[in-house]
């Protein structure tokens, strides 16, 4: 039985699938050719990340497809309900990339409070001619310790982010429409741990209280942070989005950055992927990454082996 991992899969995932009797194809097939390739090669399992879209047209065109797998959490690039209605199993790996995404959140937070993203742009250009000027420009950094991090969406990735924030000595507040409270266990290298309970609150109160905001929500109809919401935020707030593009009004964000309402933003995802707006890419107050939240070797190993385990369980 053949598996097409169209957006790639880790070596450990390939090995696990091959050990289970599957043939793994890692050739990258163009979006418009995916259905033809599946049918011509008798592919039973299609694995994707965020790049390949699995919509109704592919599902209808591929009657031999048995499993669609998403390496990661969000499945907004798959017509999940429609696939299930056709008898196709739809799987994902919601727990595998949580720590990797959370660490990227803190990469952006630390970039923002110490201007690392902008300093790394300007030091190669002016470090030898304007060292003292740059030193002065980046002198007003802030500490994260003691500040309040507002987490919007306290699911697995939100909880992993909360653990890291607590480890840094931050106060953590959260808003979530579906989770009234959650126990967060912070584990240490020597086996010791502490557990704290976070009770969620209204989005409006979080916006008013948070020094920094991290978004961990799926794709939405409408913005979580639009022009009206930006007015509620504390002056000088920092915002990070490593969740999904389209949950922040990017025009309103740039306006808030320019006015000083928002001190910095960290963006891993964008409304117009793979062609983010130039106003974002060139902004000195935005720390930028190209949708790499789960792109660590450790996360990809976990994703690959978890997908393999689910596929083998379903089809063997």
UniProtKB/TrEMBL annotation:
Task: List, alphabetically, the CDD domains matched.
Answer: PGDH_2
**Gene3D superfamilies (alphabetical):** NAD(P)-binding Rossmann-like Domain
Give the top-rank taxon of the lineage listed in the UniProt record for this protein. Answer: Bacteria
Q: Which UniProt keywords apply?
A: NAD, Oxidoreductase
**Domain (D-isomer specific 2-hydroxyacid dehydrogenase NAD-binding) ranges:** 107-293
Q: Which GO terms describe its molecular function?
A: NAD binding; oxidoreductase activity, acting on the CH-OH group of donors, NAD or NADP as acceptor
Q: Where is the D-isomer specific 2-hydroxyacid dehydrogenase catalytic domain?
A: 6-314
Cited InterPro entries: D-iso_2-hydroxyacid_DH_PdxB (IPR050418), D-isomer_2_OHA_DH_cat_dom (IPR006139), D-isomer_DH_NAD-bd (IPR006140), NAD(P)-bd_dom_sf (IPR036291)
* Family statement: Belongs to the D-isomer specific 2-hydroxyacid dehydrogenase family.
Q: What is this protein called?
A: D-2-hydroxyacid dehydrogenase
């Amino acid at each position: 039985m053949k598996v097409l991992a169209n957006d790639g899969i880790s070596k450990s995932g390939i090995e696990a699938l091959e050990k289970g009797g599957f043939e793994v194809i890692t050739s990258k097939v163009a979006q418009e050719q995916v259905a033809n390739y599946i049918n011509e090669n008798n592919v039973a399992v299609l694995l994707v990340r965020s790049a390949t879209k699995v919509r109704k047209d592919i599902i209808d065109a591929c009657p031999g497809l048995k499993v669609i797998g998403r390496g990661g959490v969000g499945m907004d690039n798959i017509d999940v309900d429609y696939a299930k209605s056709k008898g196709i199993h739809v799987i994902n790996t919601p727990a595998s990339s949580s720590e990797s995404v959370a660490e990227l959140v803190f990469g952006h937070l630390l970039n923002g409070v110490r201007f690392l993203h902008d300093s790394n742009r300007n030091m190669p250009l002016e470090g030898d001619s304007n060292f003292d000027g740059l030193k002065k420009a980046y002198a007003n950094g802030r500490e994260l310790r003691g500040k309040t991090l507002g987490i919007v969406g306290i699911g697995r990735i939100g909880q992993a982010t909360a653990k890291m924030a607590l480890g840094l000595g931050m106060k953590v507040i959260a808003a979530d429409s579906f989770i009234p409270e959650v126990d967060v266990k912070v584990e240490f290298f020597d086996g010791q741990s502490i557990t704290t309970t976070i009770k969620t609150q209204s989005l409006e109160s979080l916006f008013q209280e948070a020094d920094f905001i991290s978004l961990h929500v799926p794709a939405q109809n409408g913005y979580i942070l639009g022009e009206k919401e930006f007015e509620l935020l504390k002056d000088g707030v920092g915002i990070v989005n490593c969740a999904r593009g389209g949950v922040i009004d990017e025009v309103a964000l740039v306006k808030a950055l320019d006015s000083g309402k928002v001190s910095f933003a960290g963006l891993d995802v964008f409304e117009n992927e793979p062609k983010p707006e130039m106003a974002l890419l060139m902004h000195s107050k935005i720390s930028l990454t190209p949708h790499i939240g789960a792109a660590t070797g450790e996360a990809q190993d976990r994703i690959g082996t978890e997908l393999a385990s689910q596929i083998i369980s379903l089809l063997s």
